[in-house]
Amino acid sequence: MYEYDVIIAGGGPAGYSAALYCARASLRTLLIEELAAGGQMSLAPYIENYPGFDAGVEGLELASKMQKGAEKAGALTLYAGVLNLDLRGKNKKISTSKGDFTSKTVILAMGASPRTPGLPGESRLLGRGLSYCAACDGPLFKNKTAAVMGGGNSALGEALTLSYICRKVFLIHRGGSFSAEKISVNAVNDRANIIVLRHTEVTGFILENDHLAGLELKDKTSGGRSRLDCDGLFVAIGRVPNTKLCRPYVLTDQEGYIIADESTCTNIPGVFAAGDLRRKPLRQIITAAADGAVAAMKCEKYISEAFI
Asked: What are the structural domain ranges in the chain?
């Protein structure tokens, strides 16, 4: 006997959008989230590009609204870590830190995690000057000097957030031009306390009393090396898809993103991929939510055809 019609792994915008649509289709729906509703979205201090909020909305608030909407429709939330997935056959099995469950279908919506710089000693610097979230840790650096590593939308967003908190912000980018939206680039250029260092690579950390005190830099054009004194480093150099558990079954590309087109269908019948872990041209809250709705529709169709 199947305990659920749909189990959704991940409680970000893709997961809760899928939960909402599945529950409204009268499917027995369980969403499993390890930490808190919203995923990476919940870490955003302010979201200004999600339709329907003309004055913007805090990430935590939007996450809460998505969760409440799905649960009002009938979806259940289980806070637990997913330990193992068995996606073979019609009976999908999900093992979690709070027990095992079976389902007719599974929607993979675990998102992606921040990519680390891969420098010696970075793990022991977490909470000691190294961070991946300006919204979370920015206030700790009030009136201090911080650096941001990266050149995309996330990096520029981090730099802008910190520019209202810190005395000075260095934006360190390996390339010559940013891959971020023009509106973000213009905003960074307008902030007098953001100093942009292009063609620059962080090669090491400088410590004092087991805390970050500066960065070792390399100019990629000249090869010259220098020291940058700073109190904190915020890393925003991309994401790594959280697909390790499902890779034995689901096809992924070289970067680990699940291969699924706009239908969200994977190579496994009854298994769908929604949100940032899917190979796609744009990863935003709105595209994740759209994936969730599509995946829910596909679940409903699959169940109606495979379980008659």
From this structure: 4-113+239-306, 116-235
Cα torsion at 31, 37, 38, 42 (round to 10°)?
-170
- Identical fold for domains 4-113+239-306 and 116-235, yes or no, is yes
Half-sphere exposure of 126 (CA within 13 A, CB side): 7
CATH code for the part of the protein at 4-113+239-306: 3.50.50.60
Instruction: Give the alpha-carbon dihedral of 13, 240, 249, 260, to 10 degrees.
Output: 60
Q: Which residues, other chains included, contact 233 with Cβ-Cβ below 8 Å and sequence gap of 6+? A: 129, 130, 131, 146, 147, 148, 149, 202, 205, 212, 215
Burial of 138 (0-12, 13-18, 19+ CB in 10 A): buried
- Contact yes or no for 250/155 (Cβ under 8 A): no
User: Is the pLDDT assigned to residue 1 strictly greater than 90?
Assistant: no
Catalytic residues: 133, 136-137
The b/e string for 41-70 (b: 16+ C-beta within 10 A; e otherwise) is bbbbbebeebeeeeeebebbebbeebbebb
- CATH for 116-235 is 3.50.50.60
- Tens of pLDDT, residue by residue over 116-168, are 898 998 888 888 999 988 877 888 899 999 999 999 988 999 999 999 999 99
Confidence category of residue 184, pLDDT binned at 50, 70, 90 = very high
| Residue 284 pLDDT level (bands cut at 50, 70, 90) | confident
